[in-house]
Every structure is written in C-alpha cells, then in structure tokens.
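Journal club side-thread
Mid-discussion, someone asked how the predicted structure for our own chain would compare to the paper's figures. Pasting it here so we can look after the session.
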Amino acid sequence: MEQPVNTENVKLSLVGQHGRAVDIATPQHDYIDAEQVAARLPAVLQTSLDLETIVGLFDKEVSKVLAYDGMLYHHQGVHCDIQIGRRSHHKCNYRLEINGVWLGEITLTRRSKFTDDDTRLFEDMLCKFIYPVRNSILFHQAQSAALQDSLTGLNNRGAFDASLKREIDLANRQHTPLALVVFDIDHFKAVNDTYGHSSGDLALQSLANVITSTMRNSDIAFRYGGEEFTLILSNTDSESAQLVAERIRTAVSKLSCNNGQKTFGITVSAGVAQLSRGENGTALFDRADHVLYQAKKAGRNQTKCADKIISKDN
C-alpha cells in the first residue's frame, strides 16, 4: 500500500480505496480553477506554523474545487485531532509520511463515492500540504525539546517561568487558589562524591519519576535547576499542596537507588507557598524557596509552609 515517489522519498498511502497504491506523480487534473488553487496553495499554507491553522487553510482552499462534507486530520504523536465539517459514509483516507517523518492521517468524507478524478485531484493538493505540515511538526517538536530537561524528561526552567506566569494570570482571573512546591535533594553533593556523578544523575531521574507518578493530573512538574525541582498546583490551597508535597517526600524517602554496584537512598526537603493577592511569580517562588531552606536548616527530609513546620521524619 505504500510507495516511495521519485527522489523526494514522499509516501502517501491511500487506505481502503480499491486496494491500490497511490502514485502522486500521475497526471493530475484538467480543472483550471484547481490548477489555480494548487499553484497558490504552498504560499497560503506557509503563512503559519500552527498545525490547526494549516489544516483549516488547507480545507478552505480544497473545498473550492472538491465537494466533500468533512475533513479529519489526526496525529497522535503531537496530540492533534482536528475535525472540520461532518462525517459521512464514504471516505478517502491517506497516511502521510515524508523522509521518515510521520505526518499523521487525513480523511475526506461525503455522502457520495469519491471518483478516481476526485482522488487524483486531492492527491495533487496533498503534495502541497505535506511540507507545511512537516515544518509545523518539526518546529513544535523543537520548541518542546527546548523546554524539556533532557536528563529527567521534565519541563525545564524556561518552561517553569512561562507556566508560572500563565497559571498566576489564570488564578487571578478566575479567583482561584494557586500553590507552588519547591523540592531539593538533601546532601546531593555527598551522593555525587560518594557514588559518582552517574549516581547523582540516577538520583535526579528517580526523584523525577516519583514526582510524576505521585502528583495529580492537574499538577505541572519541572526540574528548576541542579537538584531543585518545582511543582505548580493550580486551583490548590496551601493545605492541599502540603498533602501533595508530603506524599512525594514520603515516597522519595522509601526509594532504593541502585547504580549497578551499590544501593543508596535519598531524601528531599520541600517548601510550600500559596499565591497571595497581588503577588508575582518571583515573589511566590522566593517564599517557597525560603521555607525550603528553613526545612534544610531544621534537619532536612521535611516539609515547611509559611512559618509552621508540616512534618518531620526522625
């Protein structure tokens, strides 16, 4: 069903249409209007790097020369699922790939069957569609990589700054509480010095795994830098944030990290702060960070919030 085309290494697979493979190099169509649309389509689609916008523009142009009821685009890898119009009984469905990059699936539906002329026309339009789609996907993948910590897979400091500002603005507009938790691995330098830096990396990855497996679906986790991690909790007051921080702290204290030669454990200290009226992200972080270091000075492996201690393991 899949056939590489010429030297461009483009693959378009037609699904469920007479069981034949697509050759996008075949003669295209005789419609003057369609030729005009095809000629201007690349310039139209290159006006945006937003995938939903690109699909919308593609639908707008193609619908001028081809009758259909609905267009659907799906790409699980980038969490994109777009439906324009309505689903109908008959469909032509294409799997898109170029140079080894998976570009998703696109489907046209309508009440009457698609003719061979219809599919040839759409295939010609798809040749103009796949490159802007590829550019959009690669752009957003690069953006995501730039905001991700490569060691732990968590969001990084840049993502934290942007997310905290966004969540504070949202909390202020909706008049809902917002809390921030800051974690720091206790005696992290000693882990590196005693077991080696690869074990330090293992400790960071282990903490990240505990945070992501313990936090709620609505929480957002970050590696802030070094051995310090943060957790933004939307629609959450300080009491609920303390419970989340304690679950994570307790789970970490039960960890056994094995570097292949030795087994060691780690603990974390945590600071919790709830957003105050008129407070910005810097001030909120500074308050959480301040009580974190109060927890460390008080003996580590504990959570502190404001001016009271929440818990301590002896």
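Post-session note: The two ends are 65 Å apart (CA to CA).
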